[in-house]
């Protein structure tokens, strides 16, 4: 049996050393590599010392030294196991925690140096070449501390496994299993085997653990990256995620939610339903499933509301996902505006006019209100382009568009129909009032002077006014205004003609 234990111990040392060297190459690229390498080298020292005890059986100094070397190996395995599992669980060890982990190995070395005198750790009895080893009080303190470190690490790993994304849970399971196996072996050795045959089973369990780590590092590469937890996913999301209980209180919120909705906090759970984030939404948090709303500050949010149920179908709470789409909505509105505006004058274009005209006709027919239209044409515009160039012609169109825009009131529309033709759509305005306003625009444009090099271009307008007749359509009114405008041109230009006058003439 000693021969088998010696062989297994040496094999465990070889596998642990090989795994440690394999992992140590990744120490600069992964925070998991160094603690795992320390764990493997500590296990190698532990197993080697146990294996050589059988070889050094006839030498008292060698036997005593090997017994003492087991203890630093145990300390390295325990401390590195906690270190590895803590980092694997997503925690970053601070300098203070690292210093605390070094306290035990430091005190252990000091105690072992003084132990031959005080026998705090091991009580050695030498009879000839035989050495009997007993446990001192510090040995049990050391053992309990090592167990506590390993158990704490396993608890951290299992807790992180629950929170991890499904694809990474096996990483935590393998790590917890590999840490548990030698711990179980050491417990059996301490409580059972040592009392009967003085048979140390721990190296056998170390061999299994080292083999597991060698396999996962050779084929799985666990130390290459720290597994991702669900919490880490939520932490890096740009979307704001708020979790509410069935009463509407905030249970949790990721950093994006706390930045977007500063009042969202899980600290007020004892103060009753937390409606602060709803108040932030200006009382408009009535979006069901998905929708867009605007807050009191003008922020536009895309809101998705997802109810949660427990396994038996009872309401478990709600997940609210908020995304700031203010800039997206601004760009969308800008694109819509660009699609409905004339690029040169900034007035509504022909497409927008067609829609507004159709809506205005429907409203006027339904409500029995008057609806008038003024069709404006710039006189002799082709001559301006031919004489001064298109740049001056564009400046003339811009100047006319500006006057038309200033002439419109709420609910009215100024549009460029095409070329040098413009339209004023005047809901609720009679033909007489529309003619008066058209003449006012004509007079204002007649006073304009558009620079053209050393010259100035003077403008005149011809305008036709039409009013929606009972049972008439948008096309009828547009044709009537067009007919009136051409009547103004034939009458000498620079004047306003109504559709009734044009028909009479």
Radius of gyration (CA) equals 44 Å
Sum up the overall morphology in one term: rod-shaped
| Mean residue pLDDT | 81
Number of helices: 17
Helix-and-strand structural type: alpha+beta
Q: Which stretches are low in confidence, meaning pLDDT under 50 for 5 or more residues running?
A: 265-277, 279-288
Question: What fraction of the residues are assigned to beta strands by DSSP?
Answer: 15-25%
Q: How does the major sheet shape up?
A: 5 strands, antiparallel
Distance between the termini: 128 Å
**Annotation, overall tally of beta strands:** 14
The percent of residues in helical segments reads 55-70%
Order the strands across the largest sheet as they lie in space: 4-3-7-6-5
Task: Classify the oligomer.
Answer: single chain
Task: Give an account of the 3D structure.
With 505 residues, the chain is an alpha+beta fold. It is 57% helix and 17% strand. The protein has helices at 2-24, 33-55, 60-88, 95-118, 137-163, 169-196, 202-220, 230-236, 255-260, 276-280, 326-340, 350-367, 381-388, 390-407, 431-446, 474-490, 499-504; strands at 122-127, 130-135, 240-244, 250-253, 290-294, 300-309, 315-324, 371-378, 413-418, 421-427, 449-452, 455-458, 461-467, 496-498. A 5-stranded antiparallel beta sheet has the order 4-3-7-6-5. A 5-stranded mixed beta sheet has the order 9-10-8-13-14, with helices on both faces. α16 links the parallel β13 (461-467) and β14. α3 (60-88) packs antiparallel against α4 (95-118), α3 packs parallel to α5 (137-163) and α14 crosses α15. The chain is rod-shaped, with a radius of gyration of 44 Å.
């Amino acid at each position: 049996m000693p021969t088998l234990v010696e062989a297994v111990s040496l094999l465990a040392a070889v596998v642990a050393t090989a795994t440690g060297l394999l992992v140590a190459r990744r120490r600069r690229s992964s925070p998991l590599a160094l603690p795992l390498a320390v764990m493997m080298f500590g296990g190698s020292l532990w197993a080697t010392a146990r294996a050589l005890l059988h070889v050094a059986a006839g030498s008292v100094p060698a036997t005593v030294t090997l017994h003492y070397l087991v203890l630093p190996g145990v300390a390295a395995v325990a401390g590195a196991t906690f270190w590895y599992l803590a980092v694997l669980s997503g925690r970053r060890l601070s300098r203070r925690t690292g210093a605390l982990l070094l306290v035990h190995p430091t005190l252990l070395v000091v105690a072992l140096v003084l132990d031959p005198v005080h026998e705090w750790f091991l009580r050695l009895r030498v009879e000839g070449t035989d050495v009997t080893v007993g446990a001192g009080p510090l040995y049990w303190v050391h053992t309990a501390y090592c167990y506590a470190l390993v158990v704490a690490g396993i608890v951290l790993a299992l807790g992180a496994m629950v929170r991890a994304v499904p694809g990474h849970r096996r990483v935590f399971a393998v790590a917890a299993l590999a840490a548990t196996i030698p711990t179980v072996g050491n417990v059996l050795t301490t409580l059972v085997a040592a009392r009967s045959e003085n048979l140390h089973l721990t190296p056998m369990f170390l061999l299994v653990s080292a083999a597991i780590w060698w396999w996962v590092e050779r084929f799985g590469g666990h130390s290459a990256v720290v597994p991702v937890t669900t919490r880490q996913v939520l932490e890096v999301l740009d979307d704001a995620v708020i979790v509410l209980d069935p009463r509407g209180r905030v249970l949790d919120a990721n950093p994006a939610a706390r930045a977007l909705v500063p009042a969202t906090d899980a600290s007020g759970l004892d103060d009753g339903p937390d409606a602060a984030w709803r108040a932030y939404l200006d009382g408009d948090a009535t979006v069901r499933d998905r929708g867009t709303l605007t807050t009191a500050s003008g922020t536009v949010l895309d809101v998705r509301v997802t109810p949660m149920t427990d396994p038996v179908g009872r309401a478990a709470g709600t997940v609210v996902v908020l995304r700031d789409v203010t800039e997206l909505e601004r760009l969308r509105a800008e694109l819509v505006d660009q699609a409905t505006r004339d690029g040169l004058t900034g007035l509504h274009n022909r497409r927008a006019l067609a829609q507004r005209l159709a809506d205005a006709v429907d409203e006027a027919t339904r409500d029995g209100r008057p609806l008038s239209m003024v069709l404006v044409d710039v006189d002799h515009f082709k001559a301006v382009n031919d004489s001064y160039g298109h740049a001056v012609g564009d400046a003339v169109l811009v100047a006319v568009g500006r006057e038309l825009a200033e002439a419109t009131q709420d609910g009215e529309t100024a549009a460029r129909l095409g070329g040098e033709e413009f339209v004023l759509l005047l809901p609720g305005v009679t033909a007489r009032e529309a003619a008066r306003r058209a003449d006012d625009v004509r007079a204002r444009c007649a006073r304009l002077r558009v620079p053209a090099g050393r010259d100035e271009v003077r403008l005149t307008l011809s305008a036709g006014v039409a009013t929606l007749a009972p049972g008439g359509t948008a096309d009828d009114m547009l044709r009537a205004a067009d007919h009136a405008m051409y009547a103004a041109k034939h009458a000498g230009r620079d004047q306003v003609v109504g559709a009734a006058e044009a028909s009479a003439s």
